[in-house]
Amino acid sequence: MDTLKPAEGGDIAELMADLGRRARKAARRLATATAAEKEAALHAMAARIRARAEDILVANREDVAQARAKGQTAAFLDRLTLDPKRIEDIAAAVDSIAHLPDPVGRVLATFERPNGLLIERVATPLGVVGVIFESRPNVTADAGALCLKAGNAAVLRTGSESFRTSLAIAQAMGEGLFEAGLPADAVRLVPTRDRAAVGAMLAGLDGNVDVIVPRGGKSLVARVQEEARVPVFAHLEGICHVFVHAGADLAMAERIVLNAKMRRTGICGAAETLLVDRACAGTHLKPLVAMLLDAGCAVRGDEAAQAVDGRVVPATEEDWRTEYLDAVISVRVVDGLEAAIDHIETYGSHHTDSIVTGDEAAAEQFLAEVDSAIVLHNASTQFADGGEFGFGAEIGIATGRMHARGPVGVEQLTSFKYRIRGAGQTRP
Asked: How many CB atoms lie within 10 A of CB 394?
């Protein structure tokens, strides 16, 4: 199997150009791969990840030691660290993607024109997908497997802190592809930490990258959106809201708010702002704020929130625009549904927002007017996840309005073309 060796220094432009050419060639082969071929390749990739577990762990220990020496936070180190169970989880996720329905070749629409032309709209791969992500080693496997299932080649660029780990995972996946008879170049990790590699990807690798998917913090996504010369599936920060409407059942609101904020505070679907309708603030605000504080969540609130509990600290204007990714939440009392929607439109990131209410009319208005990729009624924002949607996995949550929006799973990693069958028709 031909491999790309790690490259520190050297001619980055030529390295990346070669990577792009290889990916394009692999994409042409994948576009015609059968569902059975792709399924077999994914199972082989999962098997090689398991077989290479010790190599991956060795690489991961080096990455973790380096990150610890740099003073990275405990939360960062936890996201970076692998153990045998986490490696098995990574392999199992690849296996699960193998069992998803093949999104390529789906007939999306059929119609016949008056002249007898038969027209079909058919799902096709995007081509070459560039994925730029920060230091979560599992993304290497998830992104590569999802792209492959959708018939795409993947060029993956990880953060420097997980470089060794991600490279080991990608090499194992390449071995699985090769064993299954598909090109190893279908899933490649950029084999250098050099930041110039990101610029090359954003420029499109000489026309060989069809779309870029950034997965990471605000600064990464901002750079990608600013510099990319190819389409981007944007994933901005998740400034997610829960609005407790006047018609909300308090017990339900408590369950949803606690889960939305505290189940996992570091994910993009975690609630960052709680809005409480003034009409129910007298009964709902104090117990909701106390519940969050007692659960270990810091609360930054407006005057009304401060008045119900002395532990609440004043919120600043910046708090309403902040993705904490931590056990911190901002709380504000608003004058009804319209004011809640206005707040979300002003400060939100169009990611995920939820209303808690027993008032069906209010819920329908919220669902219709809140312009976010995911809008929920009486459910936690932490359902913003491809797995929870039944997509099997996701490459990210797209917050833009073009093509893919919400969880980007295998179906969203496809485009379409028209197939037209005639019987000798010519245009008059």
From this structure: 25
Indicate the pTM of the whole model: 0.84
Strands (E), 216-316: 240-244, 271-277, 298-301, 313-314
Q: What is the rounded distance in angstroms from the CA atom of residue 398 to the CA atom of residue 403?
A: 9
Exposure on the CB side of residue 158, measured as CA atoms within 13 A? 26
The confidence score (pLDDT) of residue 109 equals: 97
Over residues 266-300, the pLDDT tens digits come to 888 999 999 999 999 999 999 999 999 999 999 99
Q: How far apart are CA 396 and CA 401, in angstroms?
A: 14
- What span, in angstroms and rounded, lies between the C-alpha atoms of 186 and 150? 12
Task: Give domain limits for the chain.
Answer: 12-233+408-420, 240-388
Give the separation between CA 158 and CA 191, rounded to whole angstroms. Answer: 10
Token pair belonging to 86:
């986490």
Q: How far apart are CA 311 and CA 293, in angstroms?
A: 8
347 contact partners, CB below 8 Å, separation of at least 6: 239, 273, 320, 321
Q: Which two tokens stand for residue 244?
A: 């407790």
The Cα 89–Cα 92 span in angstroms is 5
- Max Cα distance, the chain (Å): 81
pLDDT digits (tens, 9 = 90+) for 66-98: 999 999 988 789 889 999 999 999 999 999 999
For 193: left if phi > 0, alpha if psi spans -120 to 50, otherwise beta; the answer is alpha
- In which element (H, E) is residue 345 found? helix 336-347
Number of C-beta neighbours around residue 265 at 10 A: 18
CATH homologous superfamily, domain 240-388? Aldehyde Dehydrogenase; Chain A, domain 2 (3.40.309.10)
Cα 218 from Cα 324, distance rounded (Å):
12
CATH number for region 12-233+408-420? 3.40.605.10
Q: Buried (b) or exposed (e) across 314-344, using 16+ Cβ within 10 A?
A: ebeeebbbbbbbebbbbbbbbeebebbbebb
CA distance 369 to 23: 41
Contacts with 335 (C-beta within 8 Å, 6 or more apart), sequence order: 278
- Beta-bridged to residue 407, according to DSSP, are 397
